[in-house]
Amino acid sequence: MSFESSATAAGPAGSPPPHTVLVVDDEPTARLALVARLKRLGYRVIQAGDGRAGLEALRRERPELTILDWMMPEMDGPSFCEYVRQDPELQTSQILMMTSHDQPEQIAEGLARGADDFLSKAASKYEITARVQAGMRAATLVRRLKDATEEIRQKQEALEQELQSAARYVESLLPPPGAILPGVQMVHVYRPSLALGGDLFNIVPWSDDFLGLYLLDASGHGVSPALRSSSFATFLRRDSLLRHVGSNDPGAILTEANKQFPLTETGHYFTIVFASLDLRCHTLSYATAGHGGALLHRRSGEVCWMAQPNLPLGFDPSTSYVTATLPIGLGDRLYLLSDGLYEFPAANGELWGQGRLEKTIQALGRQPLETVITETIAEAVRWQGHEQFPDDVALMGVEVAI
Prior knowledge:
Number of helices: 10
CATH architecture of the largest domain: 4-Layer Sandwich
Order of helices and strands: EEHEHEHEHEHEEEEHHHEEEEEEHHE
Shape: elongated
Number of strands: 17
CATH topology of the largest domain: Phosphatase 2c, domain 1
Structural class: alpha+beta
Largest sheet: 6 strands, mixed
Number of domains: 2
Distance between the termini: 88 Å
Strand content: 15-25%
């Protein structure tokens, strides 16, 4: 094996370094003649006397263009090309094959095995110059594309890290499961469709026997809706509601929120269900705004959907939202859920729907609340055939034990 490097004189200070060409040919006279011509064209030139030495030079020097003889001992040109195309680090290299065999079937074979272009050994100096320049243009474009792809990959990794950090912050806003009032237990699951979602839910502790609960959904996905949801969650804190609304009535809360959170310039909005659980009066009051609502599963097995036909927040600042009230008893369970839990398709395009969701919860019956929540999500996953939901999924279950 033989390998040697030769280069043109350095250009003016501050000028970019010359492009590099690797010439691989076992015929010294032909190789040196080509090297001399390439140097006169201003290229830095590396030489190798056989295919194996050429591969070593290609790996070490990463030239923009390799000019390769077809017929060589140990490793011929097509075999060299195949090796390069199978190596992830080298496969984008530009290869110009030299051959005295310029029949169509031979050219087709060379291209099929990995060459980018052909150059006849009998080519004129003008053709040599033109094909080398064309190869350099292609090499430059490929390297720019590779650099851009790597830059995009790095930016994507950085963005994903930022999204994951923001997602952890959003999840830190969610209430811890367990006892939220004496005799009232809560379990929840949250499955954002991306690293960051627009669904958010929480509790509002009014007193030792009076509790607010809400689940809101910001239209869209990603950073913007998550930030808007976080801002809305600040408004829904107890001290903020008492200051801005002066009431714990769900309808009054949504009526004020409708004024505070108009449509964005891009047309994004909120839907929400807000409920208040009063253990003194054994009542459940609620109001909804463009939301599918909540599901009340009574101990008797009866299911009641808590939803009202009205606009999402922000569409009309004059809209007033009204409060509905239901009795609630020992063993009743309230499920607040996002529409992402039932508005998703199976592989055949059929939606799971509210009906299947309701039947799933009814079939799980009086099993522990945590089991019902977990198995409901598992059944939804089985229906769609994969783990990732197309929309954010949130499900909060609350059980009254006293």
